[in-house]
Amino acid sequence: MDFQFSPEHEQIRETVRRFSQNEIAPLVEEAEETETFPREIFKKWAALGLLGVRYPEEDGGTGFDKISDCIVREETSRVSQTFAATWSAHTHLGIWPLWKGGTREQKERFFKPALRGELLSGFGLSEPDGGSDIRALRTRADKVEGGYRLNGSKTFITNAPFADFLMLAARTRPELTADAVSLFIVELPNPGFAISKLKKESIRGSETGLIYIEDAFVPDDCLLGGREGTYPIILDSLAENRVGISANCLGMAKAAFEASCTYARTRVVRGKTIGKYQAIAHKLANMAAEIEAMQWLVYYGAWRVDQGTMDIVTAAKVKLIASEAAVRISEEAIRIHGGSGLMRETGLGRIHRDSLVYIIGEGTSEIQRNIIARDLNL
Ligand SMILES: Cc1cc2nc3c(=O)[nH]c(=O)nc-3n(C[C@H](O)[C@H](O)[C@H](O)COP(=O)(O)OP(=O)(O)OC[C@H]3O[C@@H](n4cnc5c(N)ncnc54)[C@H](O)[C@@H]3O)c2cc1C
């Protein structure tokens, strides 16, 4: 066992920390206010190799590992979850299935340009009738001459308002079985896709789409891997990304905790700094202990991904713990700050609102508990 980050990992952390402070921080307020994501940042991420961190060099990636990917997430999340979530929807949700199951031609056409920031992507799984029960998705893909006709709807799709393509799940057969669900690469704009932007309380600068799909034609060469029944790729992708977004939660928790320590050392009430009051000190002690636990659970998860031994139950445990902890810690941070905690300038209200995304997105906490409980053979 080795619980140390390598010098390369430390260097990535330093690079992303500096980049996030210098390049992202100045853009956050405008992105939140205008609810518009500044896409130019993708080119800058690409120039630093930060879009392909966890993908091998032979596939056009940077050739690092999942631990590095989690470091990028953590450091970006300290500054803005709008940016970290947008990065995640593109670098993982939109393109991981291509890397895992795309044909050679699909990788050349979509995956490699996506790593260069030339094409931006998102992932369309959730539907208005339900996001938790993914096997029951209703969007249909009917086989026609030269391709498929898609009909249905998708909602809460991160990056959809500006994506160049979506990795979209649709039912290629009517049965509610796993092999009836397939993935399609849908190039946008597509005349059969009507996409509108949703207004959110959380990660406001991240653009989220509601999509109506009517008789949209998708050619055969955009069926992922050239075969139907790619549902297992969705499950594997979600398992890995549940670890990934847990690193996003870690970054938010650390930002809220560090701000709280600073405040507790400087805010004076009745002649002493509030950190001297045991009630506040104990809150910070709990936060410190929880962050330590989160940190090693997240990087254990990343290590398991790198070893190729991640499974859906372990991923559910990591996500459940990290996402719930981020909500608790960011709420405690607000309490420690008193009234200032609810003022825009501390940024704590934003962190707390943003932390709520991960107790819902990519499988709610209830769904993670269902996955864990199923494994207990109760
Ligand atoms: C900001 C944001 C971004 C998102 N980005 C994307 C994206 O890019 N792509 C994408 O495909 N989706 C995305 N989602 C959708 C997200 O994955 C779903 O919202 C989530 O899976 C929950 O689905 P739902 O909203 O339909 O809730 P529902 O499935 O309707 O669930 C409602 C409630 O019932 C509970 N529940 C449901 N089933 C069970 C059960 N079997 N046992 C116990 N409790 C249950 C849930 O836990 C929840 O509390 C995003 C969501 C948000 C908020």
Structure description:
With about 375 residues, the protein is an alpha+beta fold. It folds into three domains: about 110 residues, Acyl-CoA dehydrogenase/oxidase, N-terminal domain (Butyryl-Coa Dehydrogenase, subunit A, domain 1, Orthogonal Bundle); about 110 residues, Butyryl-CoA Dehydrogenase, subunit A, domain 2 (Beta Barrel), CATH 2.40.110; about 140 residues, Butyryl-CoA Dehydrogenase, subunit A, domain 3 (Up-down Bundle), CATH 1.20.140. It has eleven helices and nine strands. The strands form three sheets. It has a four-stranded antiparallel sheet with strand order 2-3-7-6, covered by helices on one side. It has a three-stranded mixed sheet with strand order 1-4-5. A two-stranded antiparallel ribbon has the order 8-9. Strand 2 and strand 3 form a beta hairpin. Helix 3 crosses helix 7 and helix 9 packs antiparallel against helix 10. It is globular. The model has no long low-confidence stretch (mean pLDDT about 95).
